[in-house]
Specification:
Elements (H helix, E strand, L loop, with lengths): L1 H8 L3 H19 L24 H24 L5 H30 L18 E4 L10 E5 L5 E7 L11 E8 L4 E6 L9
Parallel strand pairs: 3-5
Antiparallel strand pairs: 1-2, 1-4, 2-3, 4-5
Helix pairs in contact: 1-3, 2-3, 3-4
Length: 201
């Protein structure tokens, strides 16, 4: 235990020990809901280091943890060799560089499979249909009943629940505008739409 504590508190591991404390503090704030795991994504580009595909906080945390582990392990091994202090200090400097390079290689290998868990773009949402033109697919639309067909940006179509409460005529085959989505009721508010008003091109 004494060897471990000495390795943690001395060069080179002490540099990464301080960084590890910062990382642990950050993830504690994430767990408490004070910070977001992707807080630094807009400020740092990890693609240049081949660590992209995951949030910056994930790749940076992995890098720090691995640097700390490799430097502590190396320090313990060097302390047990019985070599002269001068040689050990020289090898400590080498260990610092080796820990950084080794952790970068390991982190690079880790983020590749993890990247699949963090898609570049958010998945489709029903809110994406707000502002879209739809075609009514039921004989009537009122405050309690109605369905319409709407086209998504990728060209696919979906049948959605629609409602209206102003008594405007909306019947089978007529065109409407989805102007709001009700999360509680899981339906869209729709209003009649004149196709002549639609922008051309």
């Amino acid at each position: 235990m004494a060897e471990f504590l000495h390795a943690v508190a001395t060069f080179p591991a002490v540099l990464f020990t301080a960084a590890l404390v910062v990382v642990m503090g950050f993830w504690l704030l994430v767990l408490l809901g004070v910070a977001d795991h992707d807080s630094f994504d807009a400020d740092v580009d990890t693609d240049a280091l081949s660590l992209g595909g995951v949030p910056v906080s994930v790749s940076a945390s992995s890098l720090v943890v691995l640097c700390w582990f490799l430097s502590v392990s190396g320090s313990v091994v060097l302390a047990r060799t019985g070599w002269s202090d001068a040689l050990v200090h020289l090898l400590d400097a080498v260990l610092l560089i080796a820990s950084v390079i080794g952790s970068w290689c390991l982190t690079r290998a880790l983020v590749r499979p993890l990247a699949k868990l963090f898609p570049d773009e958010p998945g489709p949402s029903l809110h994406d249909f707000v502002g879209s033109i739809c075609t009514i697919r039921t004989g009537r639309v009122d405050a309690d009943f109605g369905q319409a067909e709407v086209a998504a940006r990728d060209g696919s179509t979906a049948v959605v629940q629609v409602r209206q409460n102003d008594g405007s005529p909306l019947a089978l085959g007529s065109t409407g505008l989805l102007y709001a989505y009700d999360d509680a009721g899981a339906f869209f508010w729709v209003a009649p739409f004149d196709e002549a008003l639609a922008p051309r091109g």
